[in-house]
Amino acid sequence: MYLNEAEDENDGAGNDMGMERVFEELNTLKGTVDALETRLKETVDSALSREEGLRAAMDVMAGEFKKYVDGKLQRFDEVVTDCLLRRDQRWTEELKRIQSKSRMSWGPVSYSTPSIPAHSSHRRLSADETCPTVPPAAARPPIRMEFPQFGESRNSSDVTDFVEQCENFLTLRPLSDIELMGTLNTVLKGPARSWWLAARSKISNWTDFRKSFLEAFLPMDYQAEIEDQLRTNVQAPGQCLRDFAYDHRALCLKWRPDMTEADMVRRILNACNPRLASGLRGTVTTVEQLVKVGSLIEKDWSNTKDYWSRVQQSHPPKRVGKKNDHGPNRSSGGDVATALGEPSLLVMPVYLRGSKADAVLDSGCTYSLMSHSLWKAIKKDGEILASSEIPKFVMANGQENKALGKATLLFCLHDFHGMLGVHVLADDNLCMPLLLGLDFMSMCQ
Question: Per-residue pLDDT tens for 253-264?
Fold first, then answer.
């Protein structure tokens, strides 16, 4: 029993010593982990510090490289521009030299080879010598043109005019993409140049420049602005139809380049002189026809004034003196007369469905009209009139009359045959059975 107690005490002492060693090893391991953690933190901080230093150095190098590239590009543009100027000057001097030494006057020049004056004092150049090449276009007097410039203008019309002038210049003197980029660097001024310095790296040809330039300098409501101009544009009192029609068509195409010809004609008729539009509406389908027929009508208007002035000069009114036997009575309206002849009507025979009818050709009538009695004489059994798209017709006496309907008939005049829609009116509204208006004249052209 005493032996067992001694053994238990020895075992307890051994266990205490083992626990102490475990705690010592744990403390040692903890110190090692803390040291490793400290070293790892120092390593991470050092790596972050080195990364920040590398980033700063790379930013500095990138800025210097950007400045270097921008400087080289600007220098390249200047060199290209100077080269083009020297080339033009060299061609001009060569042309002047040829002109001064030539004894012949300028004549038709072949475009395949440059013109070389045949002077006896000229020596031939050997193959080793350099001879300045004169392009075919330089064999005749050059066109003096300068590339258009654009500065600080804020008007939309100036922006579009600059683009159109550039296109006209490039049509006469085409430039390569490199030459064009160098030229634009010298002709753009003010804000346009500032925009160009930032945008030229994204532009390589004229198409890209035109699109980017218009997007940058035209206002967002440019189309609405053109639409307002189109809405307020009307024919001035002293403006001829030709000038107004072409200007209005240009506005229409500037607003909507895909606008149809019929829509342009409709807009021109709505904005021109109403008196002139009433004689053209329904008879023309293109702007060219509108200008042609409208100019003739305007000429007729001016000739009418001259005609009546000549008539009054040729046939002055007869004055009737006072009658002494009846006292100082005023002359009645019938005592004053103007010796004018009866106006003659242009009557022409036409055939409608095998029947002959005498038609009057009237240039003052927009549409062709037919009396109801003539329609009943030539209509087929059971045939009825179609509805007329014209609500009312203003007659020569100023009264408004409504059409009974419309019929499409085949007109035969000599060797001409054509289908035409005729509006049928009551017999009381017409003084002749058949009137052929401007629509018939337009069909016969």
Answer: 988 889 999 999
